[in-house]
Backbone:
């Protein structure tokens, strides 16, 4: 093999490795615009929760989702921001995935905002708790 062929092969390997590295995204990384963050986890009986936060026109958009795979469960939930109530409510799981999601826009406080999601369903006693800091 001559030096031109070796240079071409080395260049192709470097390009392939670079493209593979560039397309790697951490599992909990934010997708979409802005400086968003996302966190996920499991609830006390195996359901899944997801909590996302991102800046949006001087406010923070917070989205919470709980996926239970059981349709018709009534959940009571709340979201706090640095320990202060930001939103609360009741939601019923729907759709094929047996999930619900809520989205709220809240004021952006000075410094970091730590959002905590807590949710509970009376039907099974399952509870969820998760947090994310923006």
Residues:
């Amino acid at each position: 093999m001559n030096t031109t062929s070796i240079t071409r092969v080395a260049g192709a390997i470097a390009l392939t490795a670079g493209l593979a590295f560039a397309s790697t995204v951490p599992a909990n990384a934010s997708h979409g615009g802005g400086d968003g963050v996302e966190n996920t986890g499991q609830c006390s009986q195996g359901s899944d929760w997801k909590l996302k936060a991102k800046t949006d026109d001087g406010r923070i958009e917070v989205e919470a989702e709980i996926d239970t795979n059981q349709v018709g469960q009534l959940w009571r939930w709340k979201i706090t921001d640095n320990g202060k109530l930001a939103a609360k409510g009741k939601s019923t799981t729907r759709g094929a995935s047996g999930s619900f999601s809520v989205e709220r826009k809240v004021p952006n406080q000075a410094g970091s905002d730590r959002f905590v999601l807590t949710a509970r369903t009376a039907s099974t006693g399952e509870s969820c708790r998760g947090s994310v800091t923006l």
Summary: The beta strands are 37-42, 48-56, 59-67, 74-81, 84-92, 99-107, 114-121, 127-133.
